[in-house]
Amino acid sequence: MSKAVFFDRDGTINVDTGYLHEPEKLRFIKGVPELIQRYRAEGYLIIVITNQSGIARGLYTLKQMEQLHAIMNDRLRREFGTQIDAFYYCPHLPEITGECRCRKPKPGLFLDAMKDFNIDMSQSISIGDSLRDEQASRAAGVNHFYYIHNLI
Hints:
Blueprint (H helix, E strand, L loop, with lengths): L3 E4 L24 H10 L3 E7 L1 H4 L5 H19 L5 E5 L3 H4 L10 H10 L7 E4 L2 H9 L4 E4 L5
Parallel strand pairs: 1-2, 1-4, 2-3, 4-5
């Protein structure tokens, strides 16, 4: 079985600029790329779990979000010699799209990643910046949760 570090995206990996989808606005939070690099060196998969309600709100498209993720990974590789293994996202907003199983604090995205990568959740770590990140992590069986501001 694999072990993973699950990262929230906005406010955890990158500065939260509000519905980030423009590559020119992407700024990594100081120290986070090095944290990703360290965990990868320790044999962890790096997986992003992110709510992206801007898609449901019509602020940006799925394609724009996927392009941003590709650029994020390209920059991590070029500038820091590391990368994210997978991005899992919830494009929903209950008021617009109805309820779903993937919007944090629900654990659906974590469980999808667990299945896809055969992850041992008890040996994995989750890092976020909000209570809903912690709630989703715990509901998925991740025993170790850290708030990003306590790590960097």
